[in-house]
């Protein structure tokens, strides 16, 4: 099982890569058969290629992130992640609560992001 320290480090890397990394760098944090459900209730993205495609949408924006309150229990972590995306003259802010599970190697096996359109601000 991944250690709490490994899990915290992957979560920190995730926040950094969402802000500044490429979609492939973000996807590299996941296992080949991982599942992303973002937001919860939408069709999941299954497998690293689908996950990389999903995160590709971030490449068109200037992103900043703020990691909030990481909690680790067993092979899972829950945390807040404030994401501010600027595209042109529009700024979108969303603050999901993400829940991730991890494999023994410390890679993410699943991620579920809890947020809705009502939680998003657009300026």
Automatic annotation (TrEMBL):
Keyword Hydrolase recorded: no
Nucleotide-binding is among the record's keywords: no
GO terms for MF: isomerase activity
Sequence ranges assigned to domain SnoaL-like in this UniProt record: 11-110
Keyword terms, alphabetized: Isomerase
Protein name (Swiss-Prot/TrEMBL): Putative 3-ketosteroid 5-isomerase
């Amino acid at each position: 099982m991944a250690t709490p320290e490994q899990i915290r480090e992957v979560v920190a890397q995730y926040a950094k890569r969402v802000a500044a990394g490429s979609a492939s760098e973000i996807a590299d944090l996941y296992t080949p058969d991982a599942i992303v459900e973002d937001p919860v209730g939408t069709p999941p993205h299954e497998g690293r290629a689908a996950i990389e495609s999903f995160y590709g949408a971030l490449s068109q924006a200037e992103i900043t992130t703020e990691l909030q309150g990481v909690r680790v229990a067993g092979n899972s972590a829950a945390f807040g992640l404030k994401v501010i995306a600027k595209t042109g003259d529009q700024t979108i802010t969303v603050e999901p609560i993400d829940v991730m599970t991890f494999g023994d190697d410390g890679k993410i096996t699943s991620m579920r992001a809890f947020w809705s359109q009502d939680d998003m601000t657009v300026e």
